[in-house]
């Protein structure tokens, strides 16, 4: 009985082998290999970062949106603009010849009609620091300045002459030092004694910033070198005293 089963099993295996050979199938069984570790790990990697061109484009778009205006240029300031916001053109007059407007004096006719014929101011010696009051006759001193401008304006070429840039000062009575009594210029520009220095032709003692202050509040162009701004200050003050005189800018 056992031998018969063995024979049958052998015949079955032989028949299976013949069938595989007939169909062209290899008698050995092929087992599919698992995927390689490199391909499996590559499928788990994160996506690559964006390229440099894409990052640059993002940075360019963000910087363009942050720019306040096209071109990036600054707004040009008007050199003849008035006082900044919060400051008024009106002030309390500190001298009898001053108006309630910054850097502005009354006209000559107004002052004479109010019997104001003399202008005064403080001066201090550069050497011994002695102080005294200097007085000028209004009509005669203004006549000197006006005649000088009328006679030599065509030679000035819109620039203050050397005599205005480096003025001559009175001598000191205390120590005898010549050319040393300088006008006292207040630290607050609104308190500067403009008419006093005009009549003494000592406006050149002012700093460039002080002269620019005058031109700013009298609506005159205030850019340029000191000789240019000083020239405008002289003519501006003369125009205030004599609006009909030859002092147009």
Helix-strand blueprint:
Layout (H helix, E strand, L loop, with lengths): L1 H22 L13 H8 L7 H15 L41 H6 L4 E8 L5 E7 H19 L5 H4 L15 E3 L10 H6 L8 H10 L8 H16 L8
Antiparallel strand pairs: 1-2, 1-3
Helix pairs in contact: 8-9
List keywords for this structure.
mainly alpha
Categorize the overall geometry.
globular
Instruction: State mean pLDDT (0 to 100 scale).
Output: 80
Largest sheet: 3 strands, antiparallel
Give the strand content.
5-15%
What can you tell me about this protein's structure?
With 249 residues, the chain is mostly helical. The protein has a domain at 108-241. 43% of the residues lie in helices and 7% in strands. The protein has a 3-stranded antiparallel sheet with strand order 2-1-3.
Q: What is the compact description of this entry?
A:
The protein has 249 residues and is mainly alpha-helical. Helices cover 43% and strands 7% of the residues.
């Amino acid at each position: 009985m056992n031998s018969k089963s063995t024979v049958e099993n052998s015949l079955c295996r032989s028949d299976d082998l013949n069938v595989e050979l007939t169909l062209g199938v290899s008698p050995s069984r092929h087992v599919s290999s698992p995927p390689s570790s490199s391909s499996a790990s590559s499928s788990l990697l994160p996506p690559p970062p964006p390229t440099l061109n894409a990052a640059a484009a993002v940075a360019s778009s963000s910087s363009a949106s942050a720019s306040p205006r096209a071109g990036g240029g600054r707004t040009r300031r008007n050199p003849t603009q008035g006082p900044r916001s919060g400051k008024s053109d009106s002030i309390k007059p500190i001298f009898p010849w001053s108006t309630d407007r910054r850097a502005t004096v009354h006209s000559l006719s107004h002052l004479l009609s109010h019997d104001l014929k003399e202008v005064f101011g403080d001066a201090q010696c550069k050497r011994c620091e002695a102080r005294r009051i200097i007085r000028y006759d209004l009509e005669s001193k203004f006549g000197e300045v006006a005649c000088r401008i009328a006679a030599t304006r065509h030679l000035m070429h819109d620039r203050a002459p050397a005599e205005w840039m480096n003025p001559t000062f009175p001598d000191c009575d205390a120590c005898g030092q010549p050319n040393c009594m300088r006008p006292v210029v207040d630290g607050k520009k609104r308190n500067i004694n403009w008419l006093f220095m005009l009549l003494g032709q000592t406006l050149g003692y002012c700093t460039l910033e002080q002269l620019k202050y005058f031109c700013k509040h009298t609506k005159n162009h205030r850019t340029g070198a000191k000789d240019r701004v000083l020239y405008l200050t002289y003519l501006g003050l003369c125009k205030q005293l004599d609006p009909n005189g030859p002092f147009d800018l």
